[in-house]
Amino acid sequence: MLWLLSGAFVELPPHLRYRRSNMILLSIWIGYQEPIPKAWLSSCVDRLNRLKTEDILLSNGSKCQVLFYGIIGDCPALKGILEFIGHTGYHCCFYCYIHGIHVGGRGGKRQYYFENRMQLRTKRIYELESIRAVETSSNVYGHLGRSLLHDLLDVPLPNSIIVDYLQVSLLRHTRVIIQQVYAQLSPLERTKFDSGLRGQRFPHFFNRKLRAVCDLAFVKATELRNLLLYALIPHLLPFLPKEQLAHLSLYVCLIRIIHGKKCFGDKSSSMSKELFLTYYQDHSIYFEKLHNLVLHLHVHFDQLFDKHGSLCYLGTFGQEDLIGSISKNYHGTRFHGPLITYYYEIDFALRNKASSHDATDEKNIDGPFDQTDLSTVHCVPIALIRNHCIIFEMNNCIIGTPISAYGEHD
What we know:
Strand content: 5-15%
Number of helices: 15
Radius of gyration: 24 Å
Oligomer: single chain
Strand order of the largest sheet: 1-2
Distance between the termini: 32 Å
Number of domains: 2
């Protein structure tokens, strides 16, 4: 089991921020059980706190002040580093005091049904409750202790907590609703649905094709994103009743609105919240026992988006890629931790080694050289994107859906 604490520079633009060479490996844990946060991260957090006081000395002699903005991760990682109760307990939401209901007797699940009014956690009460949990050694509204991040982050908890859109919306909620919808279909309908997904074409810059739902265990988050945003509703038109299709369309639309271009200006987040509340309220009509924590966390997406902007959804894909690349750096040894770190440091040094000359400098060029502006970000022009659509061929019609303006497929 590999756990990673990494960092990224918020001040860099996204296309630079999430390159592997610009993401920092802070600490790594490898073991057969979940890490103990204070035993694992105490020394690392102490060094980061010293870095805040000493600043960073740049090559030109100036100093750069370091501020730590927030923490982003999936629910198991967040509950560990925040000293919080897991999703199987009561009061497990990081942002509000929703209690939850146990359903199914012994071995059942916690369900968090729709509520009109929710009491939000404030930064002052959040701090006091964590201190009280330490003093009493008990669960205080979900707090099991005081997090190391209280003394590190410059934005106070819980305002600095960002849930992982990749895990919550795609790998968890989207996956389970697809599984339940797939179970509703007959064997013949499943075969037609799977063949339609396999044959769906995308523009070249999407980089991935769709997989069949029968291979859902091997489907990655980017493939689930393309399936949810572009292909799910059109391919389910022949198989599901219109009421259930309309219900699924609410979820597709709210994710597009909250994680896309602000089509409705400052009202984009509030409009997505209204769509989700309707989706949340009627969810039990079409799906069974899916009122879990990941569904409830969508209630707070509008607040997260207003506070953090695109950090809510752009950063998670790059960090997940970093975890995968680091986890592959072991070669036939049981001492995985030191070896992974060793190979990562070698790779980082080689990739960031200074060049002997500037590639854009016309002087002292030995041999043929194609001049190019290496500072330019190469991406698909917006004018070309607008002229393309994803086409779904049905029996009696052709459906065209516009491509999202995320900039994630460049």
